Amino acid sequence: MRTAPTGCLSLLMFGLVLALPFVLANAVLTALTKLGLGPLSALGVAVGIFVGGAINIPVARVQQAERVEYRPTRLLGLHRLLGRPVRHRAYTVVAVNVGGCLVPTVLAGYQVARMALEAPAALGALGIALGLNVGLCYSFATPVPRRGIAMQPLVPALAAALSGLVLAPEWAPPIAFAAGVLGPLIGADLLHLDDIAQLGAGMASIGGAGTFDGVVLSGLVATLLVPGAL
């Protein structure tokens, strides 16, 4: 049995690494054009997602759980028995990521506005899909100490895509995208804001993983999974 030379495998891996950004960019543009965006608009949104992934905008500060440390005191030689309590207060900065949260949220709002103008009846399907996805994301989201809220983005993506296909097939792409974006944003992030103070992280960024965050990734994957374009 002959095996491929190590040099060929290394060259193949190098080629795959080089091709990955182009494949990812093509997938993003394909999803955006299925939402009715023209080539230039889709390119502008894609650039906003990729570049904006490096920008976090602080919006709030949450006080973490107070930590009390007992330091020894030398009062009357009882330093081994008595401790002086020292209270430590720390804060978590809550921020929103431009590429991973703001851009997809604005685009989702645009899709909702389009449906309200062109197909008001589809808003009911969107409401059902969004409600299901919010509940699903809230259940699957897990607070991870010193990291943030973690969730598998394929779960809301599949739920949003199936909801769009079943409830309103002719408007499946915008429903899948809006539910795929707003579901994780509301269910996984906003409804878990109370857990942020317990995580001990210096910053909690909504959409902080940029292009690979659950908010934008769920919406894009959900859009790619449904057929058709508007």
Automatic annotation (TrEMBL):
Q: Which UniProt keywords apply?
A: Membrane, Transmembrane, Transmembrane helix
TM segment ranges: 35-57, 90-113, 119-141, 174-191, 203-226
Pfam families found in the cross-reference section: DUF1614
InterPro entries recorded for this chain? DUF1614
Q: Does the keyword Transferase apply?
A: no
- Name of this chain's protein: Membrane protein
Q: What is the lineage of its organism?
A: Bacteria, Pseudomonadati, Rhodothermota, Rhodothermia, Rhodothermales
